[in-house]
Amino acid sequence: MNTSVITTPATGSVARWQALKDFDWKPVALVPLLAALALPAVGSGSTWLTLTVAGLAMGLIVFIIASGLTLVFGLMDVLNFGHGVFIALGAFVAVSVFGGLNAYAIADSFWLNLAALVPAMLAAMVVAGAVGLVFERFIVRPVYGQHLKQILITMGGMIIGEELIKVIWGPGQLALPLPETLRGSFIIGDASIEKYRLLAMGVGLAVFAAMVWTLNRTKVGLLIRAGVQDREMVESLGYRIQRLFIGVFVAGSALAGLGGVMWGLYQQTVLPQMGAQVNVLIFIVIIIGGLGSTLGALVGALLVGLMANYTGFLMPKVALFSNIALMVAILLWRPQGVYPVANR
Amino acid sequence: MSDALLTLEGVHTHIGAYHILHGVDLTVPANQLTMLLGRNGAGKTTTLRTVMGLWHASQGRITLAGQDITARATPDIAQSGVAYVPESMGIFSDLSVKENMLLAARGARTIDDVDTKRLEWIFDMFPAMKKFWLHPAGKLSGGQKQMLAVSRAIVEPRQLLLIDEPSKGLAPAIIQNMIAAFRELKAAQTTILLVEQNFNFARQLGDTVAVMDDGRVVHSGAMAELAEDSALQARLLGLSLGAHQ
User: Fold this and answer.
1) What is the ipTM of this complex?
2) Are B140 and B148 in contact (CB under 8 A)?
3) Which chain positions lie within coiled-coil regions (chain A) (predicted)?
4) I need a surface site. Which of A13, A57, A139, B164 has the fewest CB within 10 A?
5) Global pTM?
6) Which B residues, 69 through 98, put their C-beta within 8 Å of a C-beta on chain A?
7) pLDDT tens digit string along A55-81?
């Protein structure tokens, strides 16, 4: 069909301009605002730059993990407290893949390092996605619409998952060293920017771009956005929301697996309990973002990453609960989160 | 009289502990507009939702074009050619008008796959849809949202439209616009089951009518017959009003 009968370029640009004008910029502006407020508190510009890059990298890793969880909640109202198990699983799969491709990981060649890193990421995503499919079928599906049971059974699922990880990889902490060329830092003036953090930012931004493209430019993405707003109407239009949900759950689990690899490399160690540790952060992120909102999850993740790094430097004792304080402050401002989903 | 497209026989619906429909018998003739009238709480919306499979009948039988759809899931019923416009309109506020229409066109992967002539027909009925094509649906006025809800239901040919109170909360000028649009749909031989409380709206459009009270159909027949018989109107609609009070 010739769409020019529907919209001329003029009306298209008017609509785009109107959308930009109507867009709620305040939550997005919180990220640079927080960074700007931290500058005088930190004092040194180079330290501030190091902390800011570290915070953004951490935020983008947390976003990779949280993005699937927020869509799972938005689509089917499912509170999955077991999401953390996919993080740990992804990280441990990466340990095994790195073990098998150790020669590539320790080589002093960026491309050989990538030849170890990319298979590790893909394997983590495939395994976490496959386990996510089983998790949805046997743990989540029987408790649709029952929040209390969801919390209990998904936490139980995570405990079982952690124990299975201990059976396969052992109960102890394992090293997940960075590939050779990702170690070290770039020095910009007096600031030290770790190479891996730049890679983490790149991967996080690529995941965000892919999600935005999928959600806005494909029919499946439109269905996900519509389902988050009104799943009953999506069914009334003839689409099976259950299938869509399974797809999103598997994709969300795979992203958590990828996030687990990134988080493990960030910490350079992996633990069976690491999922439970990150779980708190990702729930803070999706609550700040507005349950079901992808952009909200990004804003929430960046705020959480920056806050953790700034307070860790300025007031280490406060760092433990700084993100909870951030969540409380944001919910006092916007009780439904920064980008609440319409119709819910 | 036309052949029946939709038939409900002794349909009972429970919502949790509540028994809402108490044996609904209803026939919707093909290519006609059937009005479903009654007071608030009479069971009109529950009837539409039960047909759509959003709530399942606990007893009775629902057939569409001779096929038993009583136990079918909502997406299956939609795929067999039933479009539903709920009282809340069910607009996806964060999506543009274009994206709302694309989702309703199940067979289309992109808007380019949607039948141009059909879109132009819809734009002739509802020019606001063309004007606000790329705008977020949440920014439309109440009347425009209702137009979008109806446009979405007809973006592809359907066997049956189920429409719940399209005149609710709309200004008189917009109601006239909706009446003109439904006349256009009638002229195109569309089968419609339309729930309405506004009798003046209903009498201008209905070919046949069913009046519900307390979860049952208490009258059915030609709309012209009810429109001309003020005693019958008083008895049916007055009885309903009295029961409501």
Assistant:
1) 0.91
2) yes
3) none
4) A13
5) 0.84
6) 73-75, 78-79, 84, 86, 90, 92-96, 98
7) 999 999 999 999 888 888 877 778 889
